[in-house]
Structure formats: C-alpha cells, structure tokens
Amino acid sequence: MIEKIRLSKDDITTIKVDAIVNAANNSLLGGGGVDGAIHRVAGPQLLAECRTLGGCRTGEAKITRGYNLPAGYVIHTVGPIWRGGAENEPELLAACYRSCFNLLREYKLTTVAFPAISTGVYGYPKEDAAEIAIEETMKALAINQAIKTVFFVCFNRETEAAYHRAIVKV
Hints:
CATH architecture: 3-Layer(aba) Sandwich
Oligomer: single chain
Structural class: alpha/beta
Number of helices: 5
CATH superfamily: Leucine Aminopeptidase, subunit E, domain 1
Radius of gyration: 14 Å
Largest sheet: 6 strands, mixed
C-alpha cells in the first residue's frame, strides 16, 4: 500500500488527479495560501458553488467541481488551528483525512492530491501533521482498494522531509 503514496513539490493547482484537497477555512469562500491559489485557478464558478454549501466545520469535508483546474473535483476540508495539542487537534486533523477519503469512496475517485493540512498559517507542527496524514492514508488504502495514488504536495523541503520521515516509520 505504501507504493500508492507519492510526495510531490508541484503546484497542487497543476496536478491532474481526480480530486485535489483544499485546506480551506470554515467559510469555504477562499483565503490565503493553497486555498487562495485553488480559488484563483478554478475561477469564479468555484466560489459560486462554495457559497451554496453553507460553510464547513473543522474536521469535515465537502466536495465541489474543479472548474478550471486539471482536477475534476476539489475536496474542501477545514483543519484545526494548532493551540498546543490539548484542544483535540490531532483527532480533528485525522477527521479531515477520514472525511476526504470518505468522499473519494462515495464519488468513486481513485487519485487525490493533499496539501499539508493545517501546517501553514494554522501552525500545526509539520512532523505531527505528516504522521497523522500518513496513518490515516494507510487506513484508507486498506479499506478502499480502488484508490490508485495519493499525492502529498509539499510546499517546501522541510514539509517534504517531515512526510518522508512519516512514510519511513510505516
């Protein structure tokens, strides 16, 4: 199953997969970082569709079309803001991945690209976030044999190194 996981330093908005994951805020109406980049490339139709969704709670995920993106769908998930780890952050981050993988199964999607959810402005420690991401991915791959490839798109070398270490631990 580990062979289905790939690390990438590409721009997530350029990857041709069934779905890319957006590290969104609760409003789903765009923001900075990967969220802003996805909205810019997808075009105004993405914002229009997101307005119909009524936002998204932390740990949950919602799906939209990809519009001008090479990916057919965008799965929007809201990761936790890091507050030291005592406010259920690990469980909320794990729930993000489970919610995304549930949507993959529901929509019969087989390839996906994830950013490093919550590790940017939300401040989640990269090492911890990478371990949760890989653990939840391995669980999902064991359940959903149809998944062909899971990409983790790493913004920088530090993030890529954290994901590599997490994969080696598996």
